[in-house]
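Appendix C reproduces, verbatim, an entry submitted by the partner laboratory led by Prof. M.T., so that reviewers can inspect both the input and the predicted structure.
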Amino acid sequence: MTRKKRRLILIAACGSVLALAVGLILYAMSGSIVFLRSPTDIAQQAIAPGTRLRLGGLVKDGSLRRGPDQTVEFAVTDTNATVAVHYKGLLPDLFREGQGVVAEGVLEPGGEFRADTVLAKHDESYMPREVADALKAQGRWQEGGPNKAAPAPKPATAAADSTLGPRSER
């Protein structure tokens, strides 16, 4: 066997081992990948009941109902569609109507969403990209609007501020 043939066999063997490793990694991750969907996506697409996903949007005003044993029902909307959400547990402190929310859970038959995790956002500047794009398209949210805080000014340093004088005089 020539040197060139041995090198080609070695490269082919390494490539096949690498492809096998990538395939095993992707197969292992397939059960843990969760996609973010807006209420409009859920209404338009035929998502099978039992599918695990993340639901992002705004908590619909007037939809929050608290029940016994820390059960909570609310609706998530992107102003085009609304999805009813059922959750049992403590809600984040920042959770309230009209604010952004991301709920992770399972879509049930009938279009209801059973959440096992609820994340609240304190303002719309931290909204997931897909949800923010949907709200921008509807004119509900604007980049740099009143909800977006102005960047904080940079602190002055002694080297940049000549009026402070030498360090010994401070």
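Residues 3-29 form the longest helix (27 residues). Additional entries are available on request from the coordinating office.
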